Structure formats: structure tokens, C-alpha cells
Amino acid sequence: MTAREHAGNTLEAEKVRAKPPPLYKVLLLNDDYTPMDFVVVVLQTVFAMTREKATQVMLQVHREGMGVCGTYTQEVAAAKVDQVIGIAREHQHPLQCTMEET
Ligand code: TYC
After folding, report:
1. What are the residues whose beta carbons fall under 8 Å from the beta carbon of 25, sequence distance 6 or more?
2. Ligand 1: distance of its center to the CA of 74 in Å?
């Protein structure tokens, strides 16, 4: 009897056979206009970073052009990208954020 056929265990068996979901990096992009302090607050708010971690990530993006904010499932990554872009728009900053499969 296969795992799929095992009476009463269908859901568990499907879980065992399922592939893990693909993961996505959320990437923050540099620009010349968004204030550094604003980027730090966005990273603390959306990605639950400490002020120190958020400052490190912001400075890496500022110096290197791009940085990783975190790795998430597709839905969570997309929601975080939307949140970052939404907060930036509300404050009329051009801050951009995107996601990429790991
Ligand atoms: N380069 C911006 C400045 O000098 C700061 C900045 C950092 C902007 C990170 C965007 O994702 C960013 N004010």
C-alpha cells in the first residue's frame, strides 16, 4: 500500500510528499532622494529589524545599490514589497523594493 492509499492518513501522506514552497528574497534598491532615516524606519517597521540591523542594511543598500531585507514565501514577500512601496508613496519618496526567487 502506498502512502497515498493508506487509510485515514491521506493528509499526512500528502504533506510528506509535498515539495517545500519556493522562497523569495525581498530586495531594497538605492536611490538618491529617500532620506536615510526614513529607510531605517521602514526596515524596522516592515521587517522587524532592530535599529542597528536596519541601519546596517540601509548603509549596505546606500553603498552597494541593493540589499536583502529577508527571505519569505511568495505571498509574504509580495505583501512586504507592497507595504514598502505603499509607505514610500504615502511620504512621496521614490524608494523601490522588489523580490526574486532564491
Ligand atoms: N541613498 C539615499 C541617500 O543618500 C539613502 C537610501 C538608502 C535610499 C537606501 C534608498 O534603499 C535606500 N539619502
Report:
1. 68, 70, 71, 77, 99, 100, 101, 102
2. 26
